[in-house]
């Protein structure tokens, strides 16, 4: 009696401690350094700020990663509401709320947001990018562009799945520059150049540290092993991807919530009938992200039902497409 127990994620603790150590020991605060298991340390610096400013405690430990996710969620909700309201959509607050809920109440975001470690950073960065982009589309200008530009530059320095969101972000900005917002081409071109520069600098630093091959190595799998790694036969790959597909749209737990999957299917069919291929391209990007999430080995040998969590970054763009 008198005691309460809670689980503390050991990897999250190591990541925050890594950030605190770099801040105290590097002149550049570790902005271009690598930390936990060779991942870019910039995400850990951000997570370490509450512990640095408010003292080390369980609360500040969890605020580091959890606060970034809550900020991304609240920004995404607010920006979606403002954008839909500016477009005179019917019940914009309801649509924005449903869009945000379809992200937050997915099986994998609901679980990994409570682990308070780097696996939630890509989803947070994706939410912040889309929020900044919607704010920019509502009020185009240099000041309103700072949000999505910051998120775009942060993605190459965070957990590997962020690279897929970075690719989508670059494609969307290129589309807007050439066909969507001709009056803002110079600003969008600057954002594209900044995004490309941050990706190039991050990649060069990882190549110099001999870390990039390990981040992008393809795993080989066997259906007969517990973790799924062995000889790389066709049957082993088929078993892994079928299990991953079940985890993506399964009945028990699924990456994509059933209401979102049905809604995306509806708007995909509707858009194809109107010869509008933007939803199709978005779905192809989401499918490619899931395939990469299951194919890349990462730093640990795990089952596909766990590895598919890397693809949870597909939820904000899909839910936003459904709301719009």
Descriptive overview:
It is built from 15 helices and no strands. The protein has 324 residues and is an all-alpha fold. The chain is globular and about 55 Å long. The mean pLDDT is 83.
Question: What is the fold's blueprint, element by element?
Answer:
Blueprint: H1 10-25, H2 42-54, H3 58-86, H4 92-104, H5 107-112, H6 121-138, H7 146-154, H8 162-180, H9 185-208, H10 212-215, H11 234-249, H12 258-273, H13 278-295, H14 304-307, H15 315-323
Total number of helices: 15
Main sheet? none
Structural class: mainly alpha
Which H/E pattern describes the elements?
HHHHHHHHHHHHHHH
Overall helicity:
55-70%
What is shown here, in short?
The protein has 15 helices and no strands. The chain has 324 residues and is an all-alpha fold.
What key phrases describe this protein's structure?
324 residues, mainly alpha, 15 helices, 66% helix
């Amino acid at each position: 009696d008198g005691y309460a127990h809670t689980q503390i994620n050991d990897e999250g603790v190591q990541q925050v401690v890594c950030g605190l150590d770099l801040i105290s020991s590097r002149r550049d605060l570790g902005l271009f350094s690598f930390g936990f298991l060779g991942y870019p340390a910039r995400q850990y610096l951000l997570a370490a700020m509450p512990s640095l400013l408010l003292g080390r405690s369980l609360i500040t430990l969890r605020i580091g990663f959890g606060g970034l996710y809550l900020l991304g969620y609240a920004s995404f909700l607010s920006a979606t509401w403002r954008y839909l309201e500016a477009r005179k959509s019917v019940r914009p607050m309801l649509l924005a709320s449903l869009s945000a809920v379809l992200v937050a109440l997915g099986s994998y975001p609901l679980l990994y947001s409570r682990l308070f470690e780097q696996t939630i950073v890509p989803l947070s960065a994706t939410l912040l990018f889309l929020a900044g982009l919607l704010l920019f589309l509502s009020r185009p200008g240099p000041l309103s562009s700072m949000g999505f530009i910051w998120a775009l530059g942060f993605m190459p320095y965070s957990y590997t799945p962020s690279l897929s969101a970075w690719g989508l972000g670059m494609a969307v900005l290129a589309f807007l520059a050439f066909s969507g917002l001709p009056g803002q081409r110079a600003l969008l071109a600057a954002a594209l150049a900044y995004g490309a520069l941050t990706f190039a600098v991050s990649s060069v630093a990882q190549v110099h540290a001999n870390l990039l091959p390990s981040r992008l190595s393809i795993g080989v799998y066997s259906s007969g092993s517990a973790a799924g790694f062995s000889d790389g036969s066709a049957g082993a790959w088929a078993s892994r991807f079928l299990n991953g597909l079940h985890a993506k749209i399964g009945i028990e737990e699924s990456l994509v919530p059933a209401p979102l999957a049905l809604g995306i299917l509806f708007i995909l069919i509707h858009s194809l009938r109107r010869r509008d291929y933007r939803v199709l391209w978005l779905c192809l990007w989401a499918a490619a992200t899931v395939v990469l999430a299951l194919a890349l080995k990462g730093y640990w040998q795990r089952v596909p039902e766990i590895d598919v969590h890397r693809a949870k970054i597909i939820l904000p763009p899909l839910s936003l497409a459904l709301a719009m």
